[in-house]
UniProtKB/TrEMBL annotation:
It is an enzyme of class 3 (hydrolase). This is Phosphoglycolate phosphatase. PANTHER family: PHOSPHOGLYCOLATE PHOSPHATASE. Specifically catalyzes the dephosphorylation of 2-phosphoglycolate. Is involved in the dissimilation of the intracellular 2-phosphoglycolate formed during the DNA repair of 3'-phosphoglycolate ends, a major class of DNA lesions induced by oxidative stress. It catalyses: 2-phosphoglycolate + H2O = glycolate + phosphate. Its EC number is 3.1.3.18. Signal peptide: none annotated. The active site is at 12 (nucleophile). InterPro entries: HAD-like_hydrolase_sf, HAD-like_sf, HAD-SF_hydro_IA, HAD_2, HAD_sf, PGP-like_dom2, PGPase_prok. Its cofactor is Mg(2+). It comes from Rhodothalassium salexigens DSM 2132. The keyword Metal-binding applies.
Length: 227
């Protein structure tokens, strides 16, 4: 595939830019422990992430006996967010090569956007804690607008705030592929993210096993092959 024209590079957060599974797991287990439910391991929890915090709690309950006899998810959410906010970057780190990619993208003059279903406050706290916020021109969380991925209002708003020019989204789940499709943006899918479905089966535009792979798919980063 010929490299894609790209002026705006947009990234998903959880499972794409940052491996946040350790801290999300601890926060979910904090909620589950308060309900006398068993703890879940990060390998299980990572497949539950990508559609917002409430959905994560809902899935955690479903996995540990169901939603009967426990408070509503909306009532469990504040406890989850309080704990998570206090431990947001204890174990969460950018995936290998992610920061180098951000450096290359900035050096090539690309604008960077973040389009995540993580709540806005948690997004900003995590990005600040990992010193990533300054790379981004726009960061929009899942509770900041009237809809979140795959609702096109989310990615469309990121695009509108970034400015003109072709865009590419990097994501890790079916939600990102659907969001890209809804907004007419090609999607590079990372194979190391949180998707329960294998990345190659998500129907993205291209697949990335390593962030170094991104360069050959984006015209501003692609170097002519050496002869
Ligand atoms: O569901 C979440 O909390 C975040 O998910 P995302 O960054 O992968 O969109
Ligand atoms: Mg994700």
């Amino acid at each position: 595939m010929a490299p894609l024209d790209c002026r705006n590079l947009i990234l998903d957060l959880d499972g794409t830019l940052v491996d946040s599974a350790p801290d999300l797991t601890r926060a979910l287990n904090h909620v589950l422990a308060s309900l006398d439910r068993p703890a879940l391991d990060p390998q299980t929890v990572r497949h539950m992430v990508g559609q917002g915090a409430a959905k994560l709690i809902e899935r955690g309950l479903a996995h540990t006996g169901g939603a009967e006899g426990v408070p509503a998810v909306a009532d469990l959410l504040p406890g989850f967010l309080d704990f998570y906010g206090a431990h947001i970057a204890d174990g969460s780190r950018p995936f290998p090569g992610a920061v180098d990619l951000l450096d290359r993208a900035r050096a090539a003059g690309l604008r960077l956007g973040l389009c995540t279903n993580k709540p806005q406050a948690m997004t900003e706290a995590l990005m600040d804690a990992l010193d990533l916020s300054d790379y981004f021109d726009v960061m929009i969380g899942g509770d900041a607008l009237s809809g979140r991925k795959p609702d096109p209002v989310h990615l469309d708003t990121v695009l509108a705030r970034l400015g003109d020019g072709p865009a590419v989204l990097l994501g890790d789940t079916a939600t990102d592929v659907a969001a890209g499709r809804a907004s007419g943006v090609p999607v590079g899918v990372v194979s190391f993210g949180f998707s329960a479905i294998p990345a190659a089966e998500l129907g993205g535009t291209f697949l990335i096993d390593d962030f170094a792979d991104v360069d050959r798919h984006l015209a501003p980063l692609a170097r002519p092959a050496r002869v």
